[in-house]
Specification:
Layout: E1 2-9, H1 17-36, E2 40-46, E3 50-56, H2 60-69, E4 76-84, H3 88-92
Antiparallel strand pairs: 1-3, 1-4, 2-3
Length: about 90
């Protein structure tokens, strides 16, 4: 299944800059791992907002598990996930 996920995080006021940068680095490594595993098919930075990522997972449960295990999960202030459907194969057969 394909999912479009918009993830918006925010540095809490009680976390120092250096500690936040460590969390950001962990998030980047987790993102790279998911991309290398084929779970993230595309990811786009929305400057000043967050990220928009296209995930491919077996089902919605796996998608939920991935999101909750991300290092920044506790700091997401907004998460929007929608199932998407690749219409390209159908259009090719028209």
């Amino acid at each position: 299944m394909l999912f479009a996920a918009r993830l918006i995080s925010q540095q809490p006021p009680n976390i120092q800059f250096d500690e936040w940068q460590e969390i950001v680095a962990e998030q980047l490594q987790a993102t790279k791992t998911l991309r290398d595993e084929g779970k993230i098919r595309a990811i786009y930075r929305e400057t000043g907002v967050g990220v928009l990522a296209i995930f491919e997972t077996g089902d919605a449960t796996e998608m939920d598990q991935i999101l909750t295990q991300l290092p920044m999960a506790p700091y997401f202030k907004e998460v929007n996930v929608n199932v998407i459907w690749d219409m390209s194969p159908i259009l090719e057969n028209l």
